[in-house]
Write a structure and sequence with these properties.
Layout lengths: L2 E8 L5 E6 L18 E6 L12 E10 L2 E10 L2 H14 L13 E5 L3 H15 L10
Antiparallel strand pairs: 1-2, 3-6, 4-5, 4-6
């Protein structure tokens, strides 16, 4: 697992510089049952492709592209309607000034559809613990 400090990625506040873990894809770190019963997945896509995401239940990862082909996990989220949630998240970050429209390409995403809320929430927690994304504050103290 490659985890390093990225000086141009902001942390969960407004500070510049954060530790992030390299994207290794959709892991199942605790080998939980139910995760394999997906209804589909979208591997890394450009942020402009949010319209192509179905408004279904699942989890998503927002990635930071430090250099071409070098992606780090910035955020992992669960949603009952991923298309709507991704639009809200990207809009919020843009309004806070973290993402400028011309640098949106630095933040691709991946989506993973799951058949039920229980599986999605547990899998989200597992991925947050595995990747420790800097924008997730769920397990911060």
């Amino acid at each position: 697992m490659d985890r390093r400090f990225l000086p141009t990625l902001w942390d969960h506040g407004t500070g510049i510089g954060a530790f992030a873990t390299k994207w290794e894809g959709w892991k199942n770190p605790l080998d939980r049952a139910g995760v394999e019963k997906t209804t589909g997945r979208i591997n890394v896509s450009h942020a402009d492709a949010i319209e192509e995401i179905a408004d279904e239940m699942g989890i998503y990862a927002v990635l930071y592209e430090a250099s071409p082909g070098s992606r780090y996990v910035a955020y992992v989220g669960y949603s009952k309607g991923m298309s709507t949630e991704l639009k809200i998240r990207y809009g919020k970050w843009r309004n806070e000034g973290h993402i400028e429209s011309r640098s949106l390409a630095k933040f691709p995403f991946a989506a993973f559809y799951l058949p039920n809320q229980a599986a999605a929430r547990v899998y989200e927690d597992d991925l947050i613990r595995y990747y420790c994304p800097p924008w997730n504050t769920k397990f911060h103290r």
